[in-house]
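Problem: given the chain below (347 residues), write out its structure.
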Amino acid sequence: MYKLVEIRIKRRRVSNVLRIMKIGTHDGVFHCDEVLACFMLKCLPEFKDAAIVRTRDMEKLKECDIVVDVGAEFDHEKKRYDHHQREFSETLSSLRPELGDKYRIKLSSAGLIYAFYGEKVIQAVAPKDHPLTTDNLTVVYKKVYENLVEELDAIDNGVPMTDTEPRYKIRTHLSARVHRLNPEWNSDQTINVDESFMKAVALVSEEFLYMVNYAISVWLPARDYVKSALEERYQVHRSGRILEFKERFPWKEHLFDLEQEMGVNEVNYVIFKDKPKSWRVQAVPVSPTSFITRKPLHKKWWGVRDELLSEIAGISDCIFCHSTGFIGGNASREGALAMAIASLQAE
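Solution.
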């Protein structure tokens, strides 16, 4: 009798070990949000080997360990993440208020999975040579949402991009590329849609992994660089309105974010080394994508070059000033800084 009980216990243990986890989502035409949701889940250790069950059969969905984009239920405790209910209105800011109130686009299944599991997913796929601090993980988490997931949330929920100013930006059009993998209405209806779905998973995985890697390896170091420059701005000039960079890199988006976060008064100019014996002084725009600047370079210099510019400015080694005054050049750091100071003091 003892041996029989022992055998039954062992069989139960083996059965538990071999049990395959199941991710449920709907069948038929697939969309980018549930494709990305499934991919993100399979990045996690607990769902790495999970089977994706595509069905609308509620009995089969009940057998799934987690369900996305189907089932008419949102319940994090039960791991049910549908967003199609009439009463559903959750946003990233409503579910994660510690992130601030700027994320007001209604979530799709991708956004729901990202809201609850996004940090773990990022940690799972992050480059191993770029370990993330807790603060940097939060920064990257928000960046990936803004540059990828928010767009998919908005498109899937039919959120208009703009009333007057755009409410979100189309950066990848991943939704359209996923949609193209569905069979056309007049195509051979013997196409295996489940195989097409897995092609879509592969497509979104490439986009998601690129975005995370870019945010950690490229975008975050640039942000840290701008933050350091802001902290050291008074060493460049007593006004604190001129920043110095040692090289050309994408700084505008970071500057606007960090000014707000750090409570910094407006910076007017940045100087940076463009190439050997060539420095630039650039006027900061009123927004990252605007051509209008907070304070352009000295108006008397606009469209003037070389010796004539040096003579008018009273600054040696000037190279040029753009005709709109948004950027100028000098052969040395000292000259570029002098151009920034003179422009700052100009009426």
